[in-house]
Design goal:
eight-stranded mixed beta sheet, about 575 residues, single chain, alpha/beta, about 10% strand, Ferritin, two-stranded antiparallel sheet, 15 helices, about 50% helix, globular, Rossmann fold
Length: about 575
């Protein structure tokens, strides 16, 4: 598709053809009705019996089914032509808009897409000092419009070719084929249910024209934004809508709460102790929860709107809702186009309101991976790090962080997300890493143990146990399992509670007293991931690092994470 072809294209013939097929479908439908009334019904109510009558009834019913199937196929061709006209018209409108804006800004667009302008400040037609930036924007918009037209052309051509084949070989007369074709056409207008296989979702999405995709985003952002198998750019557009809607709703709820009530009612009990206002605690809890979520939204907005530079790559909002404590998935760099992709799963306390620090960690890991690549002389490889707060994480150490239910409940969500990354990636992901911190490692471990994950590496930072006894139980080559835990990290005090772990710890302690202990140790969710018996590669740490210090500037663990993510 080129500029002139799209600009000059007339879609009247498509509309005319669509109208003709509508007319044909109506006339054909009337013919089917007449056939039903004049032939089928009469035969069924006749008194004709016998072998010949049976054969005739069967053949006539078959013919009736074939006529009905043909009517359905004719109607589906009309729908395809409508979608074609709509898709091409939208692409053409976007192209014309870009060309009109170029003319208004003093830019000249050549037929091959080249853009020139008057660069003389003393000239009456001087395009201005911002011309280079304007030209880049126009060039991008023209390219997007041509790509949109190409996509519409491929999509509609495939659909029409299918119906042409059905008509030429008579498969379109099969009622099962017509029913399946109708279901497929209807499915294009319906968002797949949550939990649908991401590869099927991707096939559905690719079957839509760009204009249909835009409508889905605008009309169903809550479904599209959180659906694995939708490309990152589409999810991002939908979730920005979700983000703004949730922000408006939260603000209305905050306003409705009114001012903070007095903590005490003004009276005192028999002991002279002030009586607490019964409404204060309820107000305080609601207020603090709303403010916490609003803080998370503001942090996401701030990062999304940060000007792009070397230290701040573009970000994409791949998931968002404010149910419960809220969820969000934020990618630094586009995971669909990045060479290497890493997903970071935070642990206890992870929620919408605390996501700011987790996004900072993704920024740090991208920078660390870039540093590893530059050190190897590679200045072209790109890395995306995704902060995945897509599950309900425990919010306190006791009792929630001791409960593996949070990890088990996250398995389907994490598995679907990782499969979705491969479904939407442009080509194969060169190096795919899953990385968790604290309870996030438990979530990863349970998912890998029970469902497997399509990843090349797993990194377990400050793990209280990954729900498995050895690295090989994660269903990945143990040489690609990495773990880190500082000797100053108090997570090492999260002792086992299960009988097996308690027995192993008792036995190891007993051996230690006699000088032949091997430091094997079980924590609350399984064997410590840094002991030799677990079988992971142990990453370097700052011996004084606390539980949340592994991403500090200069941290040897952060440098090692970058090397793993970069495949170095």
């Amino acid at each position: 598709m080129d500029i002139k072809t799209l600009h000059d294209a007339g879609f009247g013939n498509l509309t005319t053809a669509k109208t003709a097929f509508d007319t044909l479908a109506t006339a054909f439908g009337q013919h089917v009705e007449n056939w039903q009334h004049d032939v089928v019904d009469r035969l069924n109510h006749s008194e004709w019996t016998g072998t010949a009558a049976g054969h005739a009834t069967t053949r006539i019913q078959t013919l009736h089914d074939e006529l009905h199937a043909a009517q359905q196929e004719i109607g589906l061709i009309s729908r395809a032509l409508h979608d074609a006209a709509e898709g091409f018209a939208a692409a053409q409108a976007h192209l014309i808009s870009a060309l009109d804006d170029a003319k208004a800004q003093g830019l000249t667009v050549a037929p091959d897409g080249g853009i020139t302008w008057d660069n003389d400040p003393n000239s009456l037609t001087f395009a201005g000092h911002g011309a280079p930036e304007h030209a880049k924007d126009i060039r991008d918009r023209i390219s997007a419009a041509l790509t949109e037209a190409d996509h519409a052309d491929r999509t509609i051509s495939k659909r029409l070719a299918h119906f042409t084949t059905n008509a030429s070989n008579a498969t379109g007369l099969d009622s099962t084929v017509a029913t399946n074709d109708t279901a497929a056409a209807n499915a294009l207008e319906q968002v797949p249910a949550a939990g649908t296989d991401p590869n099927s979702v991707q096939d559905w999405w690719n079957g839509l024209t760009d204009e249909q995709q835009r409508r889905m985003i605008l009309n169903h952002p809550d479904q599209i934004g959180n659906l694995d198998g939708i490309p990152a750019t589409g999810r991002d557009q939908a979730n920005r809508i979700n983000l703004q809607r949730s922000k408006d709703t939260l603000q209305r709820q905050l306003d409705a709460l009114g001012p903070e009530p007095d903590m005490f009612s003004g009276g005192a009990d028999s002991n002279g102790i002030p009586v607490k206002n019964s409404h204060y605690d309820d107000w305080k809890k609601q207020h603090d929860d709303l403010v916490d979520q609003m803080n998370g939204i503001n942090a996401i907005e701030k990062r999304l709107n940060t000007p792009v530079d070397d230290a701040h790559p573009p970000t994409f909002l791949l998931g968002f809702d404010n149910a419960g404590h809220g969820h969000a998935i934020v990618a630094v760099n586009n995971p669909d186009t990045a060479t290497n992709v890493s997903t970071y799963v935070p642990g206890t306390g992870a929620r919408l309101g605390s996501i700011s620090g987790d996004i900072d960690r993704s920024d740090a890991m991208v920078a660390s991976a870039n540093a590893a690549n530059r050190k190897a002389g590679d200045f072209t490889t790109t890395t995306s790090s995704i902060t995945w707060v897509g599950y309900d994480a425990p919010q306190n150490l006791v009792p929630q962080a001791a409960d593996d239910t949070y990890a088990k409940n996250a398995e389907d969500k994490l598995h679907g997300f990782e499969v979705g990354l491969h479904a939407t990636h442009q080509g194969n992901i060169a190096n795919n890493t899953i990385l968790g911190h604290s309870y996030g490692t438990t979530t990863i471990g349970y998912t890998m143990k029970d469902k497997g994950l399509p990843v090349d590496n797993v990194v377990l930072i400050a793990s209280p146990g990954a729900g498995v006894d050895t690295a090989r139980d994660l269903h990945i080559d143990p040489s690609h399992v990495y773990a880190a835990q500082s000797q100053a990290d108090m997570i090492g005090m999260a002792g086992a509670v299960d009988p097996g772990g308690l027995a192993d710890n008792f036995w190891d302690n007993l051996k230690g007293e006699y000088g032949f202990g091997d430091d094997d140790h079980h924590l609350i969710h399984g064997r410590q991931t840094t002991v030799p018996e677990f079988g992971a590669n142990v990453l370097p740490t700052d011996p004084n690092a606390g539980h949340s210090d592994y991403w500090n500037n200069g941290s040897p663990t952060l440098a090692a994470m970058g090397q793993v993510i970069a495949g170095r």
